[in-house]
Amino acid sequence: MALTLSELARLVDGDIVRGGPDLLIDGIAALDEAGAAELSFLGNEKYRAQYLATRAGAVIVPRGVTEGPEASALIAAENPSYAFGLAVKHFVAATARVFTPGIHPRAIVDESAKLDPAKVRIHAGAVIMAGAEIGDGSEIGPNVVVGEQVKVGRDCLFHANVSIRERCLIGDRVILQPGAVIGSDGYGYEVVDGRHVKVDQVGIVEVQDDVEIGANTTIDRARFGRTVIGQGTKIDNLVQVAHNVQVGKHCLLVSQSGVAGSSRMGDYVVVAAQSGVAGHVKVGAKAILAARTGVTADVEGGKTYGGNPARPYMDEQRSRALVRQLPKLVERIKALEKDA
């Protein structure tokens, strides 16, 4: 449904900087694709060139921005990306997922499982094993396996081919993307008489409320006790979290990162792409690990780190700058030796 510029501003909690309040906007698009009746946003200075050239009817910009393409109305907001997301929800409401309760006839639900067929949705091929509990409003996608005595909270969404092994705990409003595995065995072996002997992994995984876990990500069960993913944490695709790891609240773990066994993370930690955290170390709250950082010892919270082994990010950047100068330094040394 189309909105006027003034209606859009109210929806996104923004202020009209330029443009008529009755301007009609009926869709959303990227800066370089938007037309005269569509909304876009400027959330990153990398896209300023596209912003200046856009043909969008309206653009959500950061507060303080007053200049832009002549053809575009401007709405200022504290967080343009978030504000644009609110507009997206409005314009795509007609195509949003509709929750329709019921159990597909080709799903397998053990008679001892606890769920209300009138308040959950179980798709074809899903398996709900003995003693499992599914909270109201939760949707279990095609070919998902919910293991024995697993407890799933309310309003969860598990996409196709998710596996949750026995006794694991899933909080409310948890989203599991396709292929995620929760509660696989931790990687534990002991060498006995020259052979690797498997160490039993008898603990569980606890995924707290409002967590999202990406496609083909694996969270290992604890050797004993619990592996914990804290409330509000968002984990990208292709991430590995090992046994007995404790991830704090509202952390971000980005694609291809890995956390080894028994490590601890405080709240609001960011682990960027392809970073690794070694076993039995602590990462302090609000620490940021830049891409490809390797943490091999405890690091303090509230700081940004880079390199392998991890060290303060600016120290790492200065070292890299010096390394880039090495070829020139070598040439200068050769020239001095030649002239000596």
TrEMBL record:
<keyword id="KW-0441">Lipid A biosynthesis</keyword>
<keyword id="KW-0677">Repeat</keyword>
<keyword id="KW-0443">Lipid metabolism</keyword>
<comment type="similarity">
    <text>Belongs to the transferase hexapeptide repeat family. LpxD subfamily.</text>
</comment>
<keyword id="KW-0808">Transferase</keyword>
<protein>
    <recommendedName>
        <fullName>UDP-3-O-acylglucosamine N-acyltransferase</fullName>
        <ecNumber>2.3.1.191</ecNumber>
    </recommendedName>
</protein>
<comment type="pathway">
    <text>Bacterial outer membrane biogenesis; LPS lipid A biosynthesis.</text>
</comment>
<dbReference type="InterPro" id="IPR011004">
    <property type="entry name" value="Trimer_LpxA-like_sf"/>
</dbReference>
<comment type="function">
    <text>Catalyzes the N-acylation of UDP-3-O-acylglucosamine using 3-hydroxyacyl-ACP as the acyl donor. Is involved in the biosynthesis of lipid A, a phosphorylated glycolipid that anchors the lipopolysaccharide to the outer membrane of the cell.</text>
</comment>
<comment type="subunit">
    <text>Homotrimer.</text>
</comment>
<dbReference type="InterPro" id="IPR001451">
    <property type="entry name" value="Hexapep"/>
</dbReference>
<dbReference type="Pfam" id="PF04613">
    <property type="entry name" value="LpxD"/>
</dbReference>
<keyword id="KW-0444">Lipid biosynthesis</keyword>
<dbReference type="InterPro" id="IPR018357">
    <property type="entry name" value="Hexapep_transf_CS"/>
</dbReference>
<dbReference type="Pfam" id="PF00132">
    <property type="entry name" value="Hexapep"/>
</dbReference>
<dbReference type="GO" id="GO:0103118">
    <property type="term" value="F:UDP-3-O-[(3R)-3-hydroxyacyl]-glucosamine N-acyltransferase activity"/>
</dbReference>
<dbReference type="InterPro" id="IPR020573">
    <property type="entry name" value="UDP_GlcNAc_AcTrfase_non-rep"/>
</dbReference>
<keyword id="KW-0012">Acyltransferase</keyword>
<dbReference type="InterPro" id="IPR007691">
    <property type="entry name" value="LpxD"/>
</dbReference>
<feature type="domain" description="UDP-3-O-[3-hydroxymyristoyl] glucosamine N-acyltransferase non-repeat region">
    <location>
        <begin position="22"/>
        <end position="89"/>
    </location>
</feature>
<feature type="active site" description="Proton acceptor">
    <location>
        <position position="243"/>
    </location>
</feature>
